[in-house]
Design a protein that fits this description.
Number of helices: 3
Shape: globular
Strand order of the largest sheet: 2-3-4-6-7-8-9-10
Order of helices and strands: HHEEEEEEEEEEH
Strand content: 35-45%
Largest sheet: 8 strands, antiparallel, barrel
Number of strands: 10
Amino acid sequence: MATRDYVIGAALGGALVGGIAIWKPFHRSTPLDTDISFSDYSFFDNKNAVSNNGFVTVNGSLHRPDLGDDDPNRPVNNTYTIQCVQTEMVCHVASVEQIGEKQVDEITLVDFSIREWGPSEIIATDTDDENQISCVKNTLTVERSSEKTYYVAQPINVEKPLCAKAGTKTVKYTIASSPTWRYLHKATGDKIEP
């Protein structure tokens, strides 16, 4: 009786291990397996508030629409919170990136100076045009009517020795749903915003 139970147990165990060995190479990792689930995209604009007292808040992840979610050059899993305040003429940007499985880096805080505040869009930069130190000028464009936000990293001072190896390509990102939310939206057939 014990021998029969042992043989049945060994056969079932072997089948399980063999099944896992066959299944594992074909299993594709998804953001649900490895990514921290940051928040979905959100946009709030109090444009109907008292004149000169407006603010816009955007939450989401830096995303490159020109790269697929499986592309190794896509931005790492991240989350951004942007709050543009008209009375301060500043967009406060807080961000954090995933640096490993269930690990995040330090929170980064940067203020962008608002260059233009209009009824249809807000434009802000993190670098003054006179700044001779930075190698990249980052620009935020918040489209209030379409509720879309763009983040553009543009090389500057490329002729300076400090910036010689910084690259010469301008990169355009959108603020969108995090990889986990994009995966869930695709899996359920929901429209991915923005």
